[in-house]
Amino acid sequence: MNEGVAYFLGICFSGLTRGSIYALMALGYTLVYGILSLINFAHGEVYMIGAFVGLVFAGLGTILGLGPVANAALALGAAIVWAGAYGFILERVAYRPLRRAPRLAPLITAIGMSLFLREFVILAQTSDFVAFPPLFEALPSLPQGWGEFVLPSELLILCSTLAVLFGLYLLVQHSKMGLAMRSIAQDPEMARLLGIDVDKIISFTFVLGSALAAVGAVLISAQIGQINANIGFIVGIKAFTAAVLGGVGSPGGAALGGLVLGLTESLAAGYLSSDYEDGFAFLVLVLILLFRPAGLVGKNLPEKV
Amino acid sequence: MLELVGVKSGYGPIEALKGIDLQVGEGEIVALIGANGAGKSTCLKTIVGLLRPTAGQVRFCGQDTLGLKPQQLVAQGMSLVPEGRRIFGDLTVGENLGLGAYLTASRAQVQLDLAYVFDLFPILQERQKQRAGTLSGGQQQMLALGRALMGRPKFLLLDEPSLGLAPLIIKEIFAMIQRINREQKTTILLVEQNAHLALKTAQRAYVLESGVLTLQGLAKELLGNKEVQAAYLGLV
Ligand SMILES: Nc1ncnc2c1ncn2[C@@H]1O[C@H](COP(=O)(O)OP(=O)(O)OP(=O)(O)O)[C@@H](O)[C@H]1O
Ligand SMILES: [Mg+2]
């Protein structure tokens, strides 16, 4: 294969891999925003905690002598459950009591929760980077030629993400729970008048978003091989950018926004300089806010306040 | 079916209901009429649990509803079609109706209820896949009614179903309201500014003025009442 083409494809795949994680995270922001018009600023910390839980359980699995598939399943399952529980508690403690408060109040508790969770992990673990157990070692190698531009783990992350996105699409568009979520996004009071337990659906949404964050966290941590207590911050901001890019409140937009942002970063790093990678992410954000404030797929509706 | 005893309610310092006594018997259509801002919507919101009475008692099927949430009262058979219809404009007609059946566990039952609603309002069947926000005002009111019926309520509360609709559509909708009452034995509390229409439709009626009930009686008698004629029917 032509070297230039292989380089380009390699950049695209690493961008899509990274974009997958942004997409999974952005969905958490967007689902919650859609229902509560609230930016859950502690979402990045839920992601970070998911990564740590994955690390602990993957280590445990290794000690117990589990096979690679069982070990990955254990790490993923534990991270999902744990992060889901954090999402549930976060909403109960930090947001629900303030549901009728001025809009600034939940923003402040969100930042407070975010700091608290990060410091908590630093105290309980360490602020240094720790190695994440390799979960993808046992993956079969790819057919001849593919190895020039894509890693098996990248392909796995991309495919898992697409599968999760498809599952989420079915849930939101074709299940009773999804219908209830969409009705609450439009008119929560009317939803209550139809017998929908709005608080329960809101809890479910937080758990769902947190579970998606945990999936992304474990996948990418296993790929990169190390984590620390600060990883949630930068990923959180990037994923928030992706959500805005897609049109905050739109799940399809969040998924698309995540992938587009990952690609953009990767192309910028690959063809310009890796120093500009983060700068490009924010340049994209600024451009979108200037020219398409409603996001890529958002309708240009007046802002919902 | 429903009984209000000395109910006061409002919004913080604003007392919109100043002690209301009202009964609705099983199978009745009762109208509640009054001018703008009289407190009609407040009364309905208090009955369905969106507002908490500051004094007095709301009893539904003999039970005090204090502390029950709207979704619990819906589960017990109440259904409010609020002022302004409040359909979910971004969802399809079919999805709106599906939400009305949120608490119905049996699929077969949902199909039966859907068939009944489509029989009442055939246009909704034609437009099942259409975004509800693109329906005309009259169709939206039909959808709001249909959505409420999907929960098979014992007690239906209607807040100004005639609002903003053309006379012909109003006639059609009110014929359906009477048909629902006749066929399903649904008890109905009907709030209206259009007093003539309400009194023609209901068996009994109450007149609400600035948070106080000033008159009550058989709808026919109120139609002939001088005060009502002067204040609400535009007759002198
Ligand atoms: N959300 C609210 N907050 C504060 N005051 C309110 C609110 N809603 C209604 N009110 C006040 O309560 C009183 C009764 O209002 P309500 O909506 O019950 O009247 P209504 O009889 O339904 O009038 P209309 O025929 O115009 O719908 C009015 O004085 C109104 O200004
Ligand atoms: Mg009203």
UniProtKB/TrEMBL annotation, chain A:
Coiled-coil regions listed: none
A GO CC term assigned to this protein in UniProt: plasma membrane
Segments passing through the bilayer: 20-39, 46-66, 72-92, 104-124, 149-172, 201-221, 279-298
Membrane topology: Multi-pass membrane protein
Molecular function as annotated in GO: L-isoleucine transmembrane transporter activity; L-leucine transmembrane transporter activity; L-phenylalanine transmembrane transporter activity; L-valine transmembrane transporter activity
Subcellular location: Cell membrane
Listed Pfam families: BPD_transp_2
GO biological process, one term: L-isoleucine import across plasma membrane
Main localization (coarse): membrane
Keyword Transmembrane helix tagged: yes
Presence of the UniProt keyword Transport in the record: yes
Keywords: Amino-acid transport, Cell inner membrane, Cell membrane, Membrane, Transmembrane, Transmembrane helix, Transport
Similarity comment: Belongs to the binding-protein-dependent transport system permease family. LivHM subfamily.
Official protein name in the record: Branched-chain amino acid ABC transporter permease LivH
Gene source species: Candidatus Lambdaproteobacteria bacterium RIFOXYD2_FULL_56_26
UniProtKB/TrEMBL annotation, chain B:
GO molecular function terms listed in the Swiss-Prot or TrEMBL record: ATP binding; ATP hydrolysis activity; branched-chain amino acid transmembrane transporter activity
Cited SMART domains: AAA
Keyword presence, Transport: yes
Transport as UniProt keyword: yes
GO biological process: L-amino acid transport
InterPro entries: AAA+_ATPase, ABC_transporter-like_ATP-bd, ABC_transporter-like_CS, BCAA_Transport_ATP-bd_LivF, P-loop_NTPase
Source organism of this protein record: Candidatus Lambdaproteobacteria bacterium RIFOXYD2_FULL_56_26
CDD domains noted in UniProt: ABC_TM1139_LivF_branched
ABC transporter domain ranges (all copies): 2-235
Keyword vocabulary terms for this entry: Amino-acid transport, ATP-binding, Nucleotide-binding, Transport
Protein name: ABC transporter ATP-binding protein
Family per record: Belongs to the ABC transporter superfamily.
